[in-house]
Each structure stands twice: as C-alpha cells, then as structure tokens.
Amino acid sequence: MIKGSQSIQFDKSPFLISSGSIVGKKEGEGPLGNLFDVVGEDDLFGEKTWEAAESTMQKEACLLALGKAHVTPEEVRYIYGGDLLRQGIATSMGMEALQIPMFGLYGACSTSGEALALSSMAVAAGYGDLMLAVTSSHFGSAEKEFRFPLGYATQRPLSAHWTVTGSGAFLVGTRKSHVRISGVTVGKIVDYGLKDSQNMGACMAPAACDTIIQNLEDFERKESDYDRIITGDLGYVGQSILFDLIRKKGKDIKPNHMDCGMVIFDQKKQDTHAGGSGCGCAATTLASYILPKLEKGEWKRILFVPTGALMSTVSFNEGESVPGIAHGIVLEHC
Amino acid sequence: MIKGSQSIQFDKSPFLISSGSIVGKKEGEGPLGNLFDVVGEDDLFGEKTWEAAESTMQKEACLLALGKAHVTPEEVRYIYGGDLLRQGIATSMGMEALQIPMFGLYGACSTSGEALALSSMAVAAGYGDLMLAVTSSHFGSAEKEFRFPLGYATQRPLSAHWTVTGSGAFLVGTRKSHVRISGVTVGKIVDYGLKDSQNMGACMAPAACDTIIQNLEDFERKESDYDRIITGDLGYVGQSILFDLIRKKGKDIKPNHMDCGMVIFDQKKQDTHAGGSGCGCAATTLASYILPKLEKGEWKRILFVPTGALMSTVSFNEGESVPGIAHGIVLEHC
C-alpha cells in the first residue's frame, strides 16, 4: 500500500463517482465554456459580496456532484474542502448549509489535490462510503485578498495569472464508476527562494517537478505510463521552467504535459497573461474537461498535479520567499 | 470501525508517541509554566517578526517531539499542520525545513483536533508508521491578523480571549506508548448566528456541545465514561453556555469538564479576560498538562475537543456571523 517515500497505492481503489463544476462569466466564454455544469451570468451568483459568491459556488458545486449521483448530503460522511481566502471563509460559510462533518484545508492552488488525496485515503481506509472534495477561487475575492483593489485598475505583469472564478466538487467513494483514484503522492514544500508573487508559475514549478519525479520513482513508472501529466496552474512561464527542471532529472514530459491554467482561458483573446490560477482552476478543469476523457477511456491513466504557491500579503511584505507545494493524484479509466 | 454518524473507532489504535511544547513568556509565567518543554525569553524566538517566530515555534515543537522519540524527520511519513494566520504561512514557512510531505489544514482553534484526527486516521489505515500533527498561534501575529495593531493599546471586552503564544506537536504512530488514540468524532459547522468576534466562547460553545453529544451518542457512552471532557478554548463565557446547552440535551458534564483556555493562564493575575485561545492553546495544554496524566494513568480516558471560531476580518466586516466547529479525539491510557 505504501509506495516509496511519499506515495500510497490503494489496495482497493476508491472511485471518483461524480463531479460538479460552476464558473464565472469569463470562464464561460473560454475554450471550456460549454463543458461546465453551470456558468454564472455575473460573478456574484445572487450574493452581495465576492466572498459570499464563492461560498455559494462551493455549495452549488457540491449539490451538483451529489445530484448527479442521486446522493443526499446526509449520506456523505466527511467533506474535505478549502479555498484561497484568509481563514478559509469561502469554505466555512459555503459548507455550513450542507451539515456534513468537515475537514478544512489550505494548500493554496494545490488544495484540490490535497482534498482528493485525503478523501480517497479516507474511503480506501473504510472510514465511509462517500466523501466530498471541494475547492474554489474567485477573481474578485482573490485580487482583494492578495493584490490590489480592482478599482485601481493596476497593470499586471505578463507573468501574472488570472484567478479562475469557479468551484469544482468531487464525490469520492466505493460505488463503482469509470474513474478510479489508484494512488496519491503527497507533496513536500519546495523553496527556490523566489520572491516575486506576480510570477507564481516560477514559484510553483520546482514543487511540481519534485512531486512528478517522486511519483514516477515511487510507482516505478516512466513518463509515458501516463497519457497525460496535468499540472494545476503553472501557466506559460511555469510550464517552460518545469520542462527544464524535469529535463535536468533526465526525464521529458513535454509530449504528454497539460496545464489546466493554459487550457481554461484563451490567453490571447481573453488577455489572461500567464494563464488561469486558483483552487478553482484545476478543480473545474478536472470536472469539465479531464474526467469525461477518463470516463470514455480516451485517456487510460493520468497524473493530476495541482500546484500551490505558499504566501500571504503579510509574508510577502515581510520579504519572505514564495515556496511551492504540489500533490499528485493518479486517476485511471476502469 | 465507523461509529454512528460522525465518528470512527480504530480497530487498531494508533499511539500518541511523544509531544513537544514551546510557549512564550506570558504562558511560561502561568499556572502550567514549569510543564512546557521550552519557554521563550521573549516572544520572537530569535526572529524579526511574529510570523517568523510562530514558524520557528512550530519547527522547534516538531523537533522536540521527534527528539524525545529518537526519530528523524526522514522517518516521518506525513505532517498535518495548521495555524490561524491567513494562508497558513506560519506552518508553510516553519515546516519547509523538515522536508516532510505535508497536508496544510485550517480549522481555526480546532486545528489541533483536526490534525490529530487526520494523522491518527492515516496511521490506523496503514499509510505510514509515523505522522506529525502540529499547530501554533502567537498573540502578536493573531492580534495583527484579527484585531488591532498592538500599538493602539485597544481596550478589550471581558468576553475577549488572549491568544496563546505557543506551538504543540505530536508524533502519532504504531510504536507502543502509554497513550492511544482510540477514536475520533469529526465536527460539523454549527452556526447560532452570533456576530461578536470578541466573544468567541459564545460562538464556539454550540459546536462543542454538538460534537460532545454526538461523540457520546456515536460511541454509546455516558458523560462519566470520560475522566475529563476537555474543550480547547471556550473560556469562562463559553463554558457556562456549554453547560446550559448540554443540560438542554439531558446531559451534565459539569463534574468532569475542563477547558484548556481556563487552565493555561491565571485569569486574575494575568488579566487574560475570558481565557486563553488559539491553535496553540489546546495543543500546548495537551502536550504539557493532559498527556502526562494519561501516561501515568491518573486519567484513563478523556475526550479532547478543540473548538474553532470560523471567521476572518473580511467575513466580520461583511456582517457574516461567526460559526464554530469542534473535533473530538478520544485518548486512553494503555
């Protein structure tokens, strides 16, 4: 069951039973627009604040995932959820209505991987038949949390990301589906000493490299054993750094790499610079674009690696570097 | 293994092998002062900022727990850690040095319970022989994060808590010790609609009641089956509300209740109002005061219930209420 130094291979793999995705207007206008379950008309989803909107997205994403599987909230044993906001309020306020026992998580944009890892670990251990993994991000609440008030219309460097407004929820359990979670690789904190919070791709690429290499080693696999190796939100800058770092380890993932941050927006038409980011980026791309390909068997096995940049405005202002973390989830068609 | 609607009883209980506690000057002058492993001379622990001090406390608490058990960081499979700061930077920056794969958590002051629950669940599932659970809080960084700059010398209402400067770390694993974690009760978010962030005891008491009642029900126990039922940081205000709420459920925990926030400071001499609070409060009290009593067998079985108030300055300013969450950990002498 324990594989190598950081991974677990499940003896009895839990299934990814269903998913729910809900996004904002801009995401709906992007290349994956018609694949999401719900696209909001504005980014407030009927609420008065971005934070409340984010909470509503989380709740709706969970209800979508539950609805598709004809499961009620009472049947779900535990929720594993998180977001980018201080003290995870989007999750706390959003999940309250479901009244499911909850583990609150924080792993920056890697949180969807963390939530899937912990929920599949819990199912495989027999701690319950149904768990929910949910994450979200919101452009408005994230800019407010990490950068400048939107009203300033601050210029953004080309290395900056555009936070995805969206939430993805996943029902993980023992009930058979066409996608199973066969293993996980839990990530370490990797710090190359970079301090540019407007270049998160560069900050996260070393962590992505570390987790991918460790996954290949722990499971004794080669790059081509995965139809795709899919990072969360490295974007254009982070991807090229990742390729270099992986090459230095004697591996090459260029032919089968994909980054959720690069497919969720049309970089040129939508002016999203380095690409999409946020807890909602990898989660909604997994729910809308990746899972259907796994369900149909178009892809047999993928490595899903959401990446997170660990920082806050306080750590940034105090001159701390921005370390990264990435968790790897092995998803297989079955 | 699954017990009732929210609990797990471990077939093969993991052991709480060792602990580490490190606190600030004020905590060192309190009633538990001579029980902590390390008491700082000031609250900076050699660092330049409170946030960096908190990171250092976390690292040192982990090293203390590891050292006592003669374990190296390389032998630990996963860390489960969290703190109160936005984006959990105390944990991210503190745990980086240990290079152990990490799950970042957020459950406000309930996080020590969350970390112990997840690490014991992982050990019991066979995902590794050694896990670390660590949490921290710091008076300086918490006041800055949640309230006013200390330089304002703002008056505090009597219902306010004094955030504990401290970190507690716990090594959980398969190696036999005299304390085992026999079960956990995962908490739900409970919201009574209170909006006073300076009265966290009142905000958290309903969640504590919910988890305690659920634990008794799930494990089919009565109050007296526990030598102590120990909440994290309800304080004087929260405790009296908890007693009332529990009484309404037809139970009485008055004879065997203890609250970490009420024992860590001398309320009158130290002017700490409602009592201590923070992720470090329950964790350092468990490490210094509770565990030795369990190890010696003075207490045979306790229910440890850290409680958290889910809020941020943003949620508070936007008029949201302050829901609570509490996780229950059953610790037994063996």
Summarize the structure.
Two copies of one chain form a homodimer. Chain A is of the alpha/beta class and 334 residues long. Chain A has two domains: 160 residues, Peroxisomal Thiolase, Chain A, domain 1 (3-Layer(aba) Sandwich); 155 residues, 3-Layer(aba) Sandwich (Peroxisomal Thiolase, Chain A, domain 1), CATH 3.40.47.40.
Task: Describe the overall structure.
- The structure is a homodimer of 334-residue chains.
- Chain A is an alpha/beta fold.
- Chain A folds into 2 domains: 160 residues, Stage V sporulation protein AD (Peroxisomal Thiolase, Chain A, domain 1, 3-Layer(aba) Sandwich), CATH 3.40.47.40; 155 residues, Peroxisomal Thiolase, Chain A, domain 1 (3-Layer(aba) Sandwich), CATH 3.40.47.
- Chain A contains 11 helices and 17 strands.
- In chain A, the strands form 4 sheets. In chain A, strands 1-2-10-17-14-11-12 form a 7-stranded mixed sheet. A 6-stranded mixed sheet of chain A has the order 4-3-9-7-5-6, sandwiched between helices. In chain A, strands 8-13 form a two-stranded parallel ribbon.
- The radius of gyration of chain A is 18 Å and the shape is globular.
- The relative contact order of chain A is 0.19.
- The model of chain A has no long low-confidence stretch (mean pLDDT 97).
